[in-house]
Amino acid sequence: MPLEKAGKMKYEIKVLDPWQRIMDKAAESQDLTPTVITPAILRKALMAEHSMTRAVRLEIKITGIKTWLAWHFRTHEVGNKHDPMMRTQLPYALNPVKYDRDAARQDVPVNYTMDVNCQSLLNMMKKRLCIAAGPEVNAICIGIINKMRSMDDPFLTVLAYFCRPSCIWQGNECHETFKGKLAPCGRFPVKKRFSQPEPWWTE
User: How far apart, in whole angstroms, are the C-alpha atoms of residue 155 and residue 121?
Assistant: First the structure.
């Protein structure tokens, strides 16, 4: 991946909730005694995309991300909280002559923070790891994944494993049917969904 095109960035990740909260929420919904969570249990929950995985949130901070790239991630609003993007340049009030807000370029580096739950992170990765999302966006996602893998947390390692593009989740089938720049990359065969003339439940 062309990391150099995305720019030099620093990634910081914090787990905002205890992983046990996933099992507490699951037990709460069924009036059961919570089971102690293990990486194996988290793996099963993420594989099934159970709602209880939304109980744990991560804070992901990217320092030095280009403005236009940060906006790619701000479009994912469901289950996410995005902090205002802070420019790494001096603020206008401190240097009004050299810094013109109206003339600011989209490649200006900013500091960007988002709070995401486990499921919303997977949903984001499904779209942003797709080849059609662009190499720079792919590179940032890989940077986040590598950061999770490097941390001494077996649960983050499991979460990083499931950060895959949508085609992997859909059984190695591509459902990208746009043409031109968003055309399928060719890694997997294209399969159109909803090919039946009517929904099955109307039969």
Answer: 14
